């Protein structure tokens, strides 16, 4: 199916650390987060949070305008 093929291609690109831009929709990217200290909410004890990768989505200005029923600003890159 076409959609499954597109999603598979997007996932493979993200696994390689590449950003994926879909014009008029937004950009998917992977961000590395370093190790940091967290806190157990029950005990208050400090616990290390290991480094990890997180998926980030940044919507395009065009998509945000559509969702908010607004006009996108003319002359501005609509794909942020």
From TrEMBL:
Keyword Nucleus (UniProt): no
Top-level taxonomic group: Bacteria
GO biological process, any: positive regulation of metabolic process
Pfam families: Bac_DNA_binding
Gene Ontology molecular functions: DNA binding; structural constituent of chromatin
GO CC field: cytosol
Keywords: DNA recombination, DNA-binding, Transcription, Transcription regulation, Translation regulation
PANTHER family: DNA-BINDING PROTEIN HU, INTEGRATION HOST FACTOR SUBUNIT ALPHA
Name assigned to this protein: Integration host factor subunit alpha
Species: Acetobacter lovaniensis
Taxonomy of the source species: Bacteria, Pseudomonadati, Pseudomonadota, Alphaproteobacteria, Acetobacterales
